[in-house]
Amino acid sequence: MDRLIINGGKQLKGTISVSGSKNATLPIAVAAAILADSASVIHNVPDLRDIDSLCAVLQVLGATTKFKNSTLYIEPGNRIAYEAPYDLVRKMRASIYVLGPLVARLGVAKVSFPGGCAIGPRPVDLHLKGLQQLGAEIEIDGGYIIARTDRLVGAEMYLRGPHGSSVGATANVMMASTLAEGQTTIRGAACEPEVADLANFLNVMGADIEGIGTSTLTIRGVKQLHGTEYAIIPDRIEAGTFMVAGAITGGDVFVKQAPAQHLGVTSEKLMEAGVQLDWTDDGVRVRTPQALQAVDIVTDTYPGFPTDMQAQMMGLLSITPGVSTITEGIYLDRFMHASELNRMGADIRVEGNRAVVRGKPKLSGAPVMASDLRAGAVLVLAGMAAAGETIVSRIYHIDRGYEGIEEKLRGIGADIIRVSD
Ligand code: EPZ
Questions:
Q1: Could you say which of 16, 181, 365, 380 would form a disulfide bridge with 390 (CB–CB 3.0 to 4.6 Å)?
Q2: Active site residue 117
């Protein structure tokens, strides 16, 4: 397995570019492969393991996919299979996205029940509830979800769960309702930019969706959708991660293509902590001209503070004077990175879904282990700020969501190399 070896203490300086959004690409690729009756060309697609894994699932379902120079070509199969097998789905939670499109297109779908992961249980009850409201019959058998219908019929529904709106359930049900008979209204829909990007893509394919970006989506079913050409939005979480990289090393970094309009609360919190952000049309300059100050973070659904930026912020607050608190409002157990940061000399105490972070003057390098995508990212950030050498193992978690992370960070002065065992 690969590891990253980082020698910390260098102030990062220069321009680092943001790739396309992983979490917009995943549902858009599914829509192109299953809902369309012709080929699509999708630009600004990041080169990530998650995208590769999803394409493997789409190929099993009959689609042809080809990825080159950030462009993904997708040709739907003229015969679409309806089963997404366990050995592929277990590697790729987002495969659950094929459920709605398959049952809308074929009237049947068989998808392995996705497992949990390091950030806690990942239920799909809202996905199933929404599809049932559209008329799908759902059965769980042998670890598979089997959905069947003669024809989906539009319906009114409310799709929030105990932790608020659901990105995945909104995407799944919205995709299915584009081919349902009549009108569907989804109240309590997720407003994340990635859901809006999917809705925009579906409309370019010929769907009829209104309320994009709001918590009430209205979808009028159409007979068919056609392939199209489209460019994915920039990845706001990768951008936020690089903004923290500039701040945690006390550097002067320009994050090119950072989407200002999707980073409102993240920017506010960084500025409240004393980070100087200068936004221009094509990105943001990040500096820390003054001492940082402790802040309190509560993660929430969009436009609140993103849970996918929680770990990165914890890394920054680990070396911010004072006592900060982080409350995780979305996942039950997304603090695995706290113990790894404590191995580097941080002082973080986790109490349920709340972490208390007492800032230390400096972290010290250590061998640490990534437990999930964003936990891995914060260990790289902390390693770049720490004195001495940090070795991050299990970086396949990082490769799921960050395109060429070590090359990009080396480009702004980080001392970081990848070694393969
Ligand atoms: C998406 O996951 C993202 N993944 C996650 O990013 C992100 O953390 C999450 O949204 C929240 O923003 C992709 O887009 C591929 P949810 P998703 O459904 O759709 C509960 C990353 O780092 N819930 O919005 O699975 C759920 O347990 C990944 O890129 C139900 O209760 O998240 C959670 O507490 C990690 N029932 C909350 O809702 C359901 O049926 C939000 O989950 C579905 C979800």
A1: 365
A2: yes
- Is 374 in contact with 311 (CB distance < 8 Å)? yes
Cβ pair 358, 317 in contact under 8 A: no
The listed CATH number (3.65.10.10, 3.40.50.10310, 3.30.70.240, 3.40.50.1460) that belongs to domain 22-231? 3.65.10.10
Token couple for 289: 């001209």
Query: Is the fold of 2-18+234-420 the same as that of 22-231?
Result: yes
- Alpha carbon distance 7, 417 (integer Å): 9
Q: Convert the pLDDT of each residue in 337-376 to its tens digit.
A: 999 999 999 999 999 999 999 999 999 999 999 999 999 9
Based on the number of CB atoms within 10 Å of its own CB, is 361 exposed (0-12), middle (13-18) or buried (19 or more)?
Answer: exposed
For the chain, which residues make up each domain, given as ranges? 2-18+234-420, 22-231
Q: What CATH code would you report for 2-18+234-420? A: 3.65.10.10
Looking from the CA of residue 162, the nearest atom of ligand 1 is 31
Which ligand 1 atom minimizes the distance to the CA of 167? Answer: 24
Residues having CB within 6 Å of any atom of ligand 1: 23, 26, 94, 122-127, 161-163, 166-169, 190, 194, 307-308, 330-331, 373-374, 401
Pocket test for ligand 1, best of 28, 127, 166, 194 (most atoms within 8 A of CB): 166
- What sign has the CA pseudo-torsion 265, 269, 272, 274? negative
Task: Tell which phi-psi region holds residue 65, choosing left (phi > 0), alpha (psi between -120 and 50) or beta.
Answer: beta
Nearest to 235 by CA among 17, 89, 73, 420: 17
pLDDT, one tens digit per residue, over 145-202 is 999 999 999 999 999 999 999 999 999 999 999 999 999 999 999 999 999 999 999 9
Minimal CA–CA distance to 147: which of 106, 114, 177? 106
> How far is residue 323's CA from residue 404's CA, in Å, rounded to a whole number?
34
Q: Which of 80, 81, 108, 117 is catalytic?
A: 117
On the question of pLDDT at 121 being above 80, the answer is no
Q: Which amino acid is at 372?
A: D
> Is the bond into 303 cis (omega within 30 degrees of 0)?
yes
Residue nearest to atom 30 of ligand 1 (CA): 123
Among 354, 353, 344, 350, which residue's Cα sits nearest to residue 381?
344
